[in-house]
Amino acid sequence: MSGNAVALWEHCINQLKAELTSAEFNTWILPLQARVDGPLLRLLAPNRFVLDWTRKHYADRLLELCERHSQGQVSQLHFEVGEFARETSSTKGKGARAGSTATTAIDSDLATRRAAANLNADFNFDTFVEGKSNQLARAASIQIARNPGGTYNPLFIYGGVGLGKTHLMHAVGNVILASNPNARVVYLHSERFVAEMIKALQNNRIEDFKKTYRSVNALLIDDVQFFAGKERSQEEFFHTFNALLESRQQIVLSSDRFPKEVTGLEERLRSRFGWGLTVAIDPPDLETSVAILHCKATQLGVTLPEDVAFFVGRRIRSNIRELEGALRRLVANAHFTGKPITLEFAKQALRDVLVAQDKQVSLENIQRTVAEYYKLRTSDLLSAKRSRSLARPRQLAMALAKELTKHSLPEIGHAFGGRDHTTVLHATRKIKSLRESDAAIEEDYKNLLRILTL
Ligand SMILES: Nc1ncnc2c1ncn2[C@@H]1O[C@H](COP(=O)(O)OP(=O)(O)OP(=O)(O)O)[C@@H](O)[C@H]1O
Questions:
Q1: Cα–Cα distance between 187 and 166 in angstroms, integer?
Q2: Quick check: 12 and 115 in contact, CB under 8 A?
Q3: Would residue 174 count as lying in a domain?
Q4: Which positions fall inside the Chromosomal replication initiator DnaA C-terminal domain (predicted)?
Q5: Rounded to the nearest whole angstrom, what is the distance from the C-alpha of residue 58 to the centroid of ligand 1?
Q6: How many CA atoms lie within 13 A of 299 on its CB side?
Q7: Fewer CB in a 10 Å sphere around the end CB: N or C, the chain?
């Protein structure tokens, strides 16, 4: 099946997944295998029952999706009972018939399993740029993807917004799925876990819910800080967590802070989060930002001149998602106007973004700038460690956050590793008095103000 045909089938299953309940999707759509032969979409069902039901209830919708997505090129459906041959090492690369049929089945199968697991195929290790800031997290993720349920369990990835935690989790899931055709992987945002659990409770299906999550080979839960304050969900997750760990299945978790500092979680859960391996992702340094820009530009089919990449990387420092947004805007602008992407063009096209960026000094930006200034890691700045070499820069960063942003004291405390608002208040007062008595602090403060408002 060509890339287009795979994309067509992926489109169909993603649409149906959004339209159907997960029970319907898992029962009727998930077992199907697909193949495109000219204008024909051939669907293989594992048995007569699935075939009849799917044809009766979903054929019209599937045909509609196919026609629309393929712009009329695929316009017929054909259902059969059966299974495409899987590719084995003995059929790999042999004659056209075995090769093409086998690859087709594997591709469509993988696409279906990926959709069922909520995984994005674009988030993989090939598209993840390595830098000092994410080296350890990347290496640990690769290790786990190759050897799930092994030594590092759970893997806990933490770091600020938009720095690649989700990307790495998907990459782990994608490798596990691709290397084991029987592996069951589930990626979920913690809020979705909570929502599904509530739905299961309302519909008297909590036993099914438990069974589903306790029978996976890899469970990837994003942003676990959102479990805070949700006791019933924590309880359920705690048991799922234990069951998976006991049966040596892999767990990967992410959060915006270190496990011990996720507030609003039961202590037993917090301590378990730290049982395996905990790795940080920090904001990228300039070189990594530039490399990421080049990588994303290539994916968009453009080549970015070096000076433009450095300009964008230097000016947009808060997170990688924003870096990507700026690049997309640049590429779209160049496309519409037909102009080449030069430095002048970039300055012009990104004017609004940069003005907004400059005005709105973000908390991440302050943390990252202060960390760079004192040659620390952002994660240390947010940690509970109290050594003087960390405490003073942290207080400075909090004071700068109060001065340069509109965030409240509790919000600032929250962003600095879940600290209390009184800690922030104390920091601002302390820095105010130190600036009057200590020339070095005054100079640091002024330097940082200048860098942040440049
Ligand atoms: N090292 C990297 N190489 C390539 N792309 C990256 C890298 N790090 C992050 N990205 C990209 O940046 C975007 C944001 O990353 P991601 O969604 O993984 O962030 P996150 O840390 O999970 O953020 P959040 O806390 O908001 O969930 C994605 O498009 C991702 O592909």
A1: 10
A2: no
A3: yes
A4: 362-431
A5: 35
A6: 16
A7: C
CATH assignment at residue 252: 3.40.50.300
Model confidence, pTM: 0.66
For residues 164 and 76, state if they share a domain.
no
* Token digits of residue 363: 């908390």
For residue 162 and ligand 1, the question of a CB distance below 6 A is answered with: yes
pLDDT per position in the chain (454 positions), as tens?
Answer: 566 777 888 888 888 888 887 767 777 888 788 888 888 999 988 888 888 889 999 999 999 999 998 888 999 999 998 876 644 333 333 322 233 333 444 456 788 888 889 999 889 999 999 998 899 999 999 999 999 998 889 999 998 888 999 999 999 999 999 999 889 999 999 999 999 999 999 999 999 999 999 999 999 999 999 998 899 899 999 999 999 999 999 999 999 888 887 888 888 888 888 889 899 898 888 899 999 999 999 988 899 999 999 999 988 876 899 899 999 999 999 988 889 999 999 999 998 877 766 656 789 889 999 999 999 998 889 988 888 889 999 999 999 998 888 788 888 999 998 898 999 999 999 999 999 899 899 889 988 887 886 5
Question: Collapsing DSSP states into helix, strand and coil, what is residue 11?
Answer: helix
Is the CB of residue 283 below 6 angstroms from any atom belonging to ligand 1? Answer: no
Ligand 1 mutation pick, 294, 321, 368, 379, max ligand atoms within 8 A of CB: 321
Give the DSSP letter of residue 246: H
Reference 5, options 119, 96, 100; nearest CA is 100
Q: Which helix (H) or strand (E) holds 252?
A: strand 250-255
Same domain, 39 and 146: no
pLDDT of residue 360: 62
Q: Give a yes or no: residue 130 inside a domain.
A: no
Which distant-in-sequence residues (6+ apart) come within 8 Å of 297 by Cβ? 303, 304, 309, 327, 331
Pairwise CA distance, residues 395 & 426, whole Å: 8
DSSP for 297-320, written as a single string? HHHTT----HHHHHHHHHH--S-H
Q: How far apart are CA 13 and CA 17, in angstroms?
A: 6
Phi/psi at 134 (nearest 5 deg)? Answer: -125, 10
- The residues, any chain, with a CB within 8 Å of residue 159's CB and separated by 6 or more, are 137, 165, 256, 280, 281, 282, 378, 379
Whole-angstrom distance, CA of residue 242 vs CA of residue 214:
9
**Is residue 164 a contact partner of residue 281, using CB atoms and an 8 Å limit?**
yes
Residue 298: count of CB within 10 angstroms of its CB: 12
The whole domain housing 408 covers 363-453
Q: Are residues 10 and 140 in the same domain?
A: no
